[in-house]
Amino acid sequence: MFSALSEKLTGTLRSLTGRGVLSESDIKDGLREIRRVLLEADVNYKLTRRFVENVGEKAAGLSALKSVRPGDQLVKMVHDELVAMLGEAKSPISFAPVPPTVLLLVGLQGSGKTTSAAKLALRLSKEQKAPFLIAADVYRPAAEIQLRKLAAESGLPVFGMTDMGGEATVVDLVSRGMEVAAKQRARTVIVDTAGRLQIDDQMMNELKQLKETVSPQEVLLVADAMTGQDAVNIAVGFDEAVGITGVVLTKLDGDARGGAALSIYGVTGAPIKYVGTGEHIDDLEQFDPVRMAGRILERGDVVGLVEKAQSNVDAKEAEQLAKRATSKRGMDLEDFLAAMSQIQKMGPLEGLLGMLPGVSAKMVKQAKVDPKRLKHLEAIVLSMTTEERRSPALLNGSRRARIARGSGRPVHEINQLLKQFEQMKKMMKGMGKFAMPLMS
User: Fold this and answer.
1) Of 17, 150, 283, 366, which is least surrounded by CB within 10 A?
2) CATH superfamily label, 101-287
3) Considering the domain 305-439 in this protein, what is its CATH number?
4) Cα separation, 431 vs 436, whole angstroms
5) Prediction pTM value
6) 187-201, pLDDT tens digit by residue?
7) Contact at 8 Å (CB) between 292 and 78?
8) For the domain bounded by 3-86, which CATH number is listed?
9) Which string of DSSP letters, residue by residue, matches 115-144?
């Protein structure tokens, strides 16, 4: 996430933080480099100029705090200005005093709108907001099929053209869907509207009609982070036409340079509410400017890591694992398999490593984290008998050769796994009471 921007920005700041004294020319050179980095990341040039000017003004009295090094003060100023550029504070969904709360999703074709509708519905379902989806894209035949398929994975209700029993206008479809949602006592209704290849009058008129009909609490623009400044221009166009209240930024896990995320709020005033961080239906995070600024500056996002663990990891199972790990007998390979399963639920390892303080994008690249590695380890352990998992000491040469054939992995990987497992087993036992909160 923003790996190139993060690497260059922290590299510039690192060259300044190592100095005991910063001259005026040092600060000017640093700010010039920061300006270049932001422009390369496709950040709006007016916002970039304002960013550099604001940091420059604050840096005028940089040596005021004798207890803090000037370089560290400058990093704090850059962090605060990044937070302001990203939206200052979290902006959660505004729910109607009397349900249902209607969320109108708009955007161009291919921005990930239908997938985002299903992701948002799943998130709201976990928050006990009883979501109901309306497939209002009547121009793309596969849109309703796609939404129903995604919603079925989580058991979420969908209303579409197939429920109308014939042809109908988009306004009639959504109106009928609202009636069905009310009967099912839905607390939130997500309307997935049609996308276009470009902004046009016909599209905007249809959206205006829909907005008048359903009176949405939120009009959320779904924008592709990979498009950079184009995403900002699209946001401006939709805002002028229908008035957006927030943004869902998709594909932030891809090779996004960061320009869209750093520019949308400053240009439109519409806060980023959610970001898509992967292809799975649960890969949607609430956007937090403070935490995102921390991740860009490689300060990590421990709160986000804890939230991922809380929502994906079984606390009771983690507690049992911790008890077994610190017991006299110690953990076995069945416990190891259970721990790997818990880790996989939290998402790709690269993403988890990136949320740790002090871990840079460069370090993650150098680590060469293979996403298939956990699957390979899982295959090896599953190729063992229950007795072998509980007593790894039984694994002699012939047994290891059999496991290699069963898992499709070379023998040296099995030897490596067993060596690493023994090291981890000793470490967990040595941690004693501290293992419990760590694994929980």
Assistant:
1) 366
2) P-loop containing nucleotide triphosphate hydrolases (3.40.50.300)
3) 1.10.260.30
4) 9
5) 0.69
6) 999 999 988 766 778
7) no
8) 1.20.120.140
9) HHHHHHHHHHHHTT--EEEEEE--SSHHHH
